[in-house]
Design goal:
The chain is an alpha/beta fold. The chain contains ten helices and eleven strands. α5 crosses α10 and α6 runs antiparallel to α7. The structure holds nicotinamide-adenine-dinucleotide. The site of nicotinamide-adenine-dinucleotide has 33 residues, from α4. It catalyses: (S)-malate + NAD(+) = oxaloacetate + NADH + H(+).
Length: about 350
């Protein structure tokens, strides 16, 4: 049991050394998100090995990236028979595999295709790198996280502190839009975004923005709506050519670097992500999370852990409380869809 009262059953006591050497895999590495995300990871001193997996084009993407003068070694893996090799020894797996939205589609419309893809990839993670931090970008995130969790459970290797739905793009967008409206440097703005990652389940907590900002009610409502529908703004502008890829690659890299920093012992690293949660009546919910390491009770070894502490919802304004209440039904439905999908899998 750690200091915040969570109990951990350590099934695989595998102690990583705390140093800047991480093997990171990108599954779906040839896609619109996968390629720029892999580029950003290749550019980072935190990554020593980059493992690129996709069902197509990875030899080319890997050859291209491997010529960049940074130390991470890059290997491409293509097709299901190379998936195990791609994952072996990975500490972090980032998954942007799957189809994106076209105009007129909701994220839930992607469920049929992406649920199978994510379940297959989660199954491979459970077999080949059960200790890894798993960061899911593939939509609908509100269902793909329960899917990943249920698949890991089936293999007896589920650790809720290591499965993340990447919602960072919602935070990135909220920071940018608030900064635009207030004439601030977006790099210095931080808006926590809680809930889930689809439409009204995306709940920006503008009342908790740093620096503190105030908006009249009509502007606050319009700003909240824009953050919730920002993905659709990009889908419409791309007019059939997909959804956010470059900003998502940035957000995926930001989340991965935060995780790696925390795994390397940096203190005070906080990111929001959609995770298994006791903070509301929803089984999965995004809130600010302190990322880090836990101390193993028996021998004081430091264990790289992902979530060190869930910082919870905190104080909400009346407007935000209403948004949370209104998101519950949709979130519960999407979570159930994910759980049912795995329960009915052959
Ligand atoms: N979490 C977020 O904030 C967020 C933001 C934007 C997009 N997305 C989601 O990310 C996903 C990817 O978007 P994209 O624009 O990169 O799509 P894309 O079509 O450009 O790329 C997807 C890649 O996945 C690969 N792929 C398909 N099946 C696979 C499998 N079984 N194993 C491995 N790779 C497989 C494809 O070959 C392709 O290279 C979509 O589901 C999209 O909705 C999430």
């Amino acid at each position: 049991t750690n200091e915040c009262g969570s109990t951990y059953i350590v099934t695989h006591c595998n102690f990583f050394s705390l140093q800047h050497n991480a093997k990171v895999a990108v599954l779906g590495a040839s896609g619109g998100i996968g390629q720029p995300l892999s580029l950003l990871l290749k550019n980072s001193p935190l990554v020593s090995e980059l493992s690129l997996y996709d069902i197509a084009h990875t030899p080319g993407v890997a050859a291209d990236l491997s010529h960049i003068e940074t130390r991470a070694t890059v290997t491409g893996y293509m097709g299901a028979d190379q998936l195990g090799a791609a994952l072996k020894g990975c500490e972090v797996v980032v998954i942007p595999a799957g189809v994106p939205r076209k105009p007129g589609m909701t994220r839930d419309d992607l469920f049929n295709t992406n649920a199978t893809i994510v379940a297959t990839l989660a199954d491979a993670c459970a077999r080949h790198c059960p200790q890894a931090m798993i960061c899911i970008i593939s939509n609908p995130v509100n269902s793909t996280i329960p899917i990943t969790s249920e698949v890991m459970k089936k293999h007896g290797v589920y650790n809720p502190n290591r499965v993340f739905g990447v919602t960072t793009l919602d935070i990135v967008r909220a920071n940018t839009f608030v900064a635009e409206l207030k004439g601030l440097d977006p790099a210095r703005v931080n808006v926590p975004v809680v809930g889930g990652h689809a439409g009204k389940t995306i709940i920006p907590l503008i009342s908790r923005c740093t620096p503190k900002v105030e908006f009249p009610a009509d502007q606050l409502s319009a700003l909240t709506g824009r953050i919730q529908e920002a993905g659709t703004e990009v889908v419409k502008a791309k007019a059939g050519a997909g959804s956010a890829t470059l900003s998502m690659a940035y957000a995926g890299a930001r989340f991965t670097f935060s995780l790696l920093d925390a795994m390397n012992g940096k203190e005070g690293v906080v990111e929001c992500a959609f995770v298994r949660s006791e903070e509301t009546e929803c089984k999965y919910f995004s809130t600010p999370l302190l990322l880090g390491i836990i101390q193993c009770q028996s021998n004081n070894h430091k264990l790289k852990n992902g979530i060190e502490k869930n910082l919870g919802l905190g104080k909400l304004s009346v407007f935000e409380e209403k948004l949370v209440a209104e998101a519950m039904d949709e979130l519960k439905g999407s979570i159930k869809n994910g759980e049912d999908f795995v329960a009915n899998m052959k």
